C-alpha cells in the first residue's frame, strides 16, 4: 500500500517548490463541546474570573492543589484575555477555553522544532507530480471518517513530541482499512521506542517512520500500547505481533489540488507550521483559518476536505492532542 505525504514549505525538489497549507478545519456533523466561551461579565472582576476558572475546572474535570490552583489561575486570566480579545469583531478564527487554558505557552504540547534535518527529504523519494493525478474529476467532498478508515483521536501527551509517530501510524491505519476492511489502532509507541532513525519523544520525521514500517511492519496499539515515554524497544523478533506494513510511499507536491487528489485516495500526512492561536482552536468554535507559521514544527493527518455553506473550502485534520 502507498502512503502519500505533502511536501511542505521550504522543500525544493526537482525544480518544484513545496506549498504551505493554510489550514481551514471544518466542524464535524455532530459537534462535541470541547471548550467554553467567554462573556464580558466573566471579565468584570477578579471574582467573576475566579468563577469562570472554577467552571472551567469542573467542565474539564481538572483538579488542582490549592497552591497550584492560585498559580494556574494567574495564567488562566492572561489566556482568557488573549482569547477574548482575539474573538472580538470579525476575527478570522474564534478561539475557545479548551483544555490548555491554564497552561503557559511553554507548557503547550511539544512540537518538533529542534529536528535539525526537518523538511529535507532525500532525492531518491518517489514524487507524484500534480499533473499525474489532477487531470481527472475529484469528489466535491471527502471524509474518511465516513468510510471507517480513521481511528479515534489520540493524545501524544504534554512531554512527548511524537506527532511524527502518530501521523505515520494514522496513515497506515487508513490505507490498511481501505484495502482490507480492518480498522485497527496501530502503535506510535513502537515507533518511538524502535525507530532509531528518529529521536523518540524529542522529535522525528514521518517519512523515516514510514520507512521503518515498510521494513519492519507495525504492531497494533493493543500489542504495544502508548505511554508517552521513550523506552527500550521490545518488538518480537518473529514479527508475529506486527499487524500492518506498506509497500512504499509517495511525496505529493505542486498544488492544493494535488493534495486533494491524494486525500481522495486515502488519509495523507502533512507537515505544517503552528502559530500559538492553533493551540486554542476548538472544534465547536467553527472553522480555523489561520494564522500559520512558516517554520515546519508539527505533523498532522488530513482525513478529508470539502466546502461549507458559505463556499469556504476546508481540510479536515486529525491531530494528536486529545479529544479536548
What does this structure look like?
By secondary structure, the chain is an alpha+beta fold. The protein folds into two domains: 2-28 and 109-318, Cathepsin B, Chain A (Alpha-Beta Complex), CATH 3.90.70; 36-97, no CATH class. Helix content is 27%, strand content 15%. The chain has eight helices and eleven strands. A hairpin with a 2-residue loop joins strand 2 (12-13) and strand 3. Helix 4 crosses helix 5 (188-194) and helix 4 (163-180) crosses helix 6 (206-216). The radius of gyration is 20 Å and the shape is globular. Residues 53-108 form the Cathepsin propeptide inhibitor domain. Residues 138-324 form the Peptidase C1A papain C-terminal domain. GO terms for molecular function: cysteine-type peptidase activity.
Q: What's the quick description here?
A:
The chain has 324 residues and is α+β, with helices and mostly antiparallel strands.
Provide the domain count. Answer: 2
The first-level CATH class name of the largest domain: Alpha Beta
Quick one: overall form?
Answer: globular
Query: What is the oligomeric state here?
Result: single chain
Measured by DSSP, the beta-strand proportion falls in 5-15%
| Secondary structure category | alpha+beta
Amino acid at each position: 500500500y502507498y502512503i502519500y505525504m505533502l511536501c511542505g514549505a521550504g522543500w525544493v525538489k526537482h525544480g518544484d517548490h513545496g506549498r504551505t497549507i493554510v489550514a481551514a478545519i471544518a466542524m464535524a456533523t455532530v459537534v462535541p463541546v470541547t471548550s467554553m466561551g467567554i462573556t464580558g461579565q466573566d471579565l468584570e472582576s477578579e471574582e467573576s474570573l475566579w468563577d469562570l476558572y472554577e467552571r472551567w475546572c469542573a467542565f474539564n474535570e481538572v483538579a488542582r492543589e490549592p497552591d497550584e490552583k492560585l498559580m494556574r489561575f494567574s495564567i488562566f486570566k492572561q489566556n482568557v484575555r488573549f482569547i477574548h480579545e482575539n474573538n472580538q469583531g470579525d476575527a478570522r478564527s474564534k478561539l475557545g477555553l479548551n483544555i490548555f487554558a491554564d497552561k503557559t505557552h511553554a507548557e503547550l504540547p511539544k512540537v518538533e522544532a529542534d529536528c535539525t534535518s526537518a523538511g529535507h527529504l532525500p532525492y531518491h523519494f518517489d514524487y507524484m507530480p500534480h499533473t499525474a493525478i489532477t487531470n481527472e474529476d475529484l469528489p466535491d467532498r471527502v471524509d474518511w471518517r465516513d468510510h471507517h478508515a480513521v481511528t479515534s483521536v489520540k493524545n501524544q501527551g504534554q512531554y512527548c513530541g511524537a506527532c511524527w509517530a502518530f501521523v505515520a501510524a494514522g496513515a497506515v491505519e487508513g490505507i490498511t482499512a481501505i484495502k482490507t476492511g480492518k480498522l485497527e489502532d496501530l502503535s506510535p509507541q513502537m515507533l518511538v521506542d524502535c525507530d532509531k532513525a528518529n529521536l523518540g519523544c524529542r522529535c522525528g520525521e514521518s517519512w523515516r517512520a514510514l520507512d521503518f514500517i515498510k521494513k519492519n511492519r507495525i504492531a497494533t496499539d493493543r500489542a504495544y500500547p502508548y505511554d508517552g515515554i521513550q523506552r527500550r524497544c521490545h518488538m518480537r523478533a518473529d514479527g508475529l505481533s506486527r499487524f500492518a506494513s506498506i509497500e512504499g510511499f509517495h511525496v505529493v507536491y505542486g498544488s492544493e489540488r494535488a493534495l486533494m487528489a491524494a486525500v481522495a485516495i486515502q488519509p495523507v500526512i502533512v507537515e505544517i507550521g503552528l502559530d500559538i492561536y492553533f493551540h486554542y482552536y476548538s472544534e465547536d468554535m467553527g472553522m480555523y483559518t489561520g494564522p500559520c507559521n512558516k517554520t515546519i514544527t508539527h505533523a498532522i493527518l488530513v482525513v478529508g476536505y470539502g466546502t461549507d455553506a458559505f463556499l469556504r473550502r476546508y481540510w479536515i485534520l486529525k491531530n494528536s492532542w486529545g479529544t479536548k
